[in-house]
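Appendix B. Raw example, untouched.
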Amino acid sequence: MHEENPAERLSQLEIATFYERSDLMYQFLSIYSTAVLEKMDTGTGDSIFVSDAYILGHIICHPGTTVSAMASHYSRTRSFLSQVVSRLSAAGYIEKHPAEQDAGTLHLYPTEKGRTVNASIIQKRGETTRDVFLQIAESCSKEDVSAFFKVIKNCIHILNPEDPFFQES
């Protein structure tokens, strides 16, 4: 059985198809990037930028992380992440603790309020996400969805190979 190499498979794509797929990806990213800049109700009486909610979730999943590590993970500037961290800290969602060896490095930890808000956000976003995936399931199989996320994960690894949180799986 002859197995094609990736370059041979890619060269078989017509330019028009490749352009259409690139355009679809750009359209998806444009819609998504606009959505993450909006504020959302946390369900606890607070509101938070969707992008900040993702960062809060990351800090909860990776307690002790740093601005530098998240900047690398999300391909964002340290300045941008520092602003997000300042908002999360001012809202009482996280605490900053200086590193023992380097007082200039701050390790980030969720507070109980941050965990409560995150749980509420997960519930609210989970309902929305479920609704979206139910609509996707009308025209895509579970295998299609898994393949989509496999491609996304591979793209992230190709574009950001130094991501300290990337794990092969």
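End of appendix B.
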